[in-house]
UniProtKB/TrEMBL annotation, chain A:
Subcellular location: Endomembrane system
Description of how the protein assembles with itself and partners: Adaptor protein complex 4 (AP-4) is a heterotetramer composed of two large adaptins (epsilon-type subunit AP4E1 and beta-type subunit AP4B1), a medium adaptin (mu-type subunit AP4M1) and a small adaptin (sigma-type AP4S1).
Gene Ontology biological process terms in this record: intracellular protein transport
Pfam families: Clat_adaptor_s
Keywords: Membrane, Protein transport, Transport
Task performed by this protein: Component of the adaptor protein complex 4 (AP-4). Adaptor protein complexes are vesicle coat components involved both in vesicle formation and cargo selection. They control the vesicular transport of proteins in different trafficking pathways. AP-4 forms a non clathrin-associated coat on vesicles departing the trans-Golgi network (TGN) and may be involved in the targeting of proteins from the trans-Golgi network (TGN) to the endosomal-lysosomal system.
Record's bilayer topology term: Peripheral membrane protein
Record domain AP complex mu/sigma subunit: where: 1-106
Designated name of the protein: AP complex subunit sigma
GO cellular component assignments: cytoplasm; endomembrane system
TrEMBL record, chain B:
GO cellular component: AP-1 adaptor complex
GO biological process, one term: intracellular protein transport
Protein name: AP-1 complex subunit gamma
Organism: Amphilophus citrinellus
Family to which the UniProt record says this protein belongs: Belongs to the adaptor complexes large subunit family.
Superkingdom classification of source: Eukaryota
Topological category with respect to the lipid bilayer: Peripheral membrane protein
Keywords of the record: Cytoplasmic vesicle, Golgi apparatus, Membrane, Protein transport, Transport
Record-linked InterPro entries: Adaptor_Complx_Large_Subunit (IPR050840), AP1_complex_gsu (IPR017107), ARM-like (IPR011989), ARM-type_fold (IPR016024), Clathrin/coatomer_adapt-like_N (IPR002553), Clathrin_a/b/g-adaptin_app_Ig (IPR008152), Clathrin_app_Ig-like_sf (IPR013041), GAE_dom (IPR008153)
Amino acid sequence: MIKFVLMVNRQGQTRLSRYYHPVELSRRAALEADVVRCCLSRKKDQCSFVEYKDFKLVYRQYAALYIVVGITDSENELSIYELVHNFVEVLDKYFSRVVSLNRVKNSWIQCQGVCRSLKHLK
Amino acid sequence: MPAPIRLRELIRTIRTARTQAEEREMIQKECAAIRSSFREEDNTYRCRNVAKLLYMHMLGYPAHFGQLECLKLIASQKFTDKRIGYLGAMLLLDERQDVHLLMTNCIKNDLNHSTQYVQGLALCTLGCMGSSEMCRDLAGEVEKLLKTSNSYLRKKVTLCAVHVIRKVPELMEMFLPATKNLLSEKNHGVLHTSVVLLTEMCERSPDMLAHFRKLVPQLVRILKNLIMSGYSPEHDVSGISDPFLQVRILRLLRILGKGDDDSSEAMNDILAQVATNTETSKNVGNAILYETVLTIMDIKSESGLRVLAINILGRFLLNNDKNIRYVALTSLLKTVQTDHNAVQRHRSTIVDCLKDLDVSIKRRAMELSFALVNGNNIRGMMKELLYFLDSCDPEFKADCASGVFLAAEKYAPSKRWHIDTIMRVLTTAGSYVRDDSVPNLIQLITNSVEMHAYTVQRLYKALLDDISQQPLVQVASWCIGEYGDLLVSGQCEEEEPIQVTEDEVLDVLEGLLVSNLSTPVTRGYALTAIMKLSTRFTSVNRIKKVVSIYGSSIDVELQQRAVEYNALFKKYDHMRNGFHLSLLMIINFRFFVVLSSFKMVQVCLSCLCVVPILQANDLLDLLGGNDVVPVIQNTVSTKPASAGGELLDLLGDLSLSGIPPMTAYNKNGLKIDFTFERANPNPNIAVITIHASNSTEADMTDFVFQAAVPKTFQLQLLSPSSNVVPALNQGTVTQVIRVLNPQKQQLRMRIKLTYTHKGSAVQDLAEVNNFPPQSWQ
């Protein structure tokens, strides 16, 4: 099950976040900072799956943007990895150039809508 | 009031902020503007304001004042308003706010709306944040919509149903009739969500599981169509048709086939087909293969299929992609217990993974390597593992060292090899070794009598090189104290004997005492070793001098020992030789108490100090004296049962408490039960009685039970009732253990059993972790 989806830039600022489990607002900032620190410190030749507390993180880097998905233990990591790429391709087709952060932010509402579609794999 | 700025402008403005403080200021200004706009009840711009509020919420700023506005938007007739309203509800509201219940009526109306998009919005919201009350109210509507033929709606409804079932499991029955023709849909979206719904139902209720088993042929057919069908642009992902649906179906098949022979058989073909036909050049194919392997492992598949699955995992291990290697190692770890031989074939690849750069892969490879060690491959594997121990990160060293010790104990081909391996571990990862391994090692060395000379020589050489690794130093100083005469006399069969004089040995030991690197425990060991050498060496005066210096040491423990040793020198010089023997005997005694590394030596010492009071000839009395007053920090080992009984009296009567007994060990016909009592007046002491029984046809003779506990506990082992466990449960051997637990920590114990059964010696180690909480609270 997917617990959350985050889009973070290199400086650690959250560009998009969607939680599928209720998490307190105050805890969110700490969680995001921690997760991002975990992923940003990994090198290129390390694998994309990290064990964090009691769930797993699957992250993928696209230029300056990191997409991190938190999943439970029972989920197939490779399939989520593929899903992230699929998500990015959809955004790419829709907004033509995902790397351009401006576009992502300006059509933020549409992004949230696409996130809704991730419920399929919740 | 000018029109509020659009969301785009807001985002652009915030992006220009260079510091956190600047951003906060901008946001606060905008929040104030939004608040006043809300107060004015402005319908036209409400949508825009809420959108901005949601964005600020996502950045982490509080936005709770927008909750009611979301509700107003939901109630509006315009689609754009509704869209933002529902999005806001999903992000800002959840069942902890009472406000959310006001939405119920709106959602109900929207579920029956004429436009499918509005219905879709309502379903999404309900499926995302619906509380149990809302779900109960609206379940009827949801169930009605499940029968719709509109595929856009149907997939949303199904997902909503999944959420309802999660929140209110009792309503599952209600959705059962609607699931009849869920799988006959052509639309992949609906198919996917239907499989999710079925999976959720099967996971929650075994009855549902049994009911849905009949769907297995249909699922197999759908999967087959997916694989066999040609290119379909709608569902294609890197050349594979709808891999996400394939993975979902495989997962559902796994749940349905688990434990059921018929279903498993129906699936065998399709699983083999998927495993062989899927293209593995891209990650997509590998994801499907991974799911297939997991399914094959879980259901009752035939052995050919299982071997195929393990071979797939083996292929994964050779893949360049890190992710795939990691996934393969994780799965192999899960299957190594059941399919041991098949996994053994890939041993060399697994061992290569130890050298990988990625931390997660290294850890998995290490765990898997330990699981694969057996009598045949122990030498080769140990070489690799020791090499790994040399080069790995500190976080691995402790686990690796413990693993090496365990493996060496189980499968050591020869004593010399065993001791060499231990020495290697001590010299490379000495400071990471666990505390309780030092007494274990000492006992091991004691038992291998023929290796004493070799061992002490090697340890001495290691000491000359490096005195910073405490466990190594402790073991070495103990050995030198015990076998110093062998060292000096230069007898060694295994290796080239080195020429060492008594003074050199004493130099080394004194160096330990003085060095800054030595911990107090190590100093204790060194001092005792020096003392022991007084009976073995001739240069007694030097030893006397050293010992008397430490009589005024700041460290209380050291001082106590030195004073006691001094006393031995001054008053009981004639008995010192007797101690030589007695020390050896105590350690080789059957009724050996394994305490923390520090206390062990002290036990022997405090026993010895009793000697002046008793007759030195009677060694038995030495240990069982009534005059011994048991101070809690110096527990005394007792030998004869009678003396033990008096000792118990000294500590007060025992009162039975209602702690349930437990089985600590049950293997090869030997069963060991623990029963518990509390000792009065000290509630920190738990008294455990072990009952060993033997269900095989032959007696177990020379039965020895030993136990070790973590450092914060203290353990006292009284004498057993006998050392023969009669066959066929004709009788039991009982032995009393007293555990002092002043810090009330969770009790754990490691036990070692040795006995002779049908002519062969058997030895086993086990960890006992399942103590009932009342025994240590």
